[in-house]
Amino acid sequence: MRYGMVLDLKRCFGCNACSVICKQKNSTPPGVFWAKVYATETGKYPNVRREYLPALCMHCADPACVKVCPTGASYKRKDGIVLIDKDKCIGCRYCMTACPYNARYFDFGESQEYFPGQGLTAYEKVKNEGHEKGKVSKCTLCVDRVENGEEPACVQNCPTKARIFGDLDNPNSDAAKLVLARSGYQLHPELGTKPSVYYLPE
Q: Keyword 4Fe-4S on this protein (predicted)?
């Protein structure tokens, strides 16, 4: 089993619903986006178009972050999900340097307030307990939801169904079928990390 995600670039129109729901669920600090959407413009006037590239932790089959972690804080589960054990993380940030996808963040302990000077909201007080100063964080593929038989929040919240979650090792899963049928590709395959996130071309 290898959980992964397929991102359909033909369906993504850059609404950032994935980024918003990810922030809401995980209460990531200001400026921290575990799910993000890169926007670029291609072509030459007047034939110009806007293109969007959603991104997250790639949950690589051969993760560089795990290899360099000196304490074993970064690890890969048997189902392919890459996580961080906060109790083991010493904040050395080797994993951040090794990650070629810029998918990890360090908590410098700066203000968690989204409304500076007004104090934390009741929601922030509850959710911020999961973030610790001096630790690294990243997308978890909503492992808590997955273990309950649910899809990651970004998948469930995508209005165009541009995100498909499933077992990439199961040829009968929707995710695996789409990768095969539409020539799904990985970002930077030359690096050998074998990402579990595939993109479907437009």
A: yes
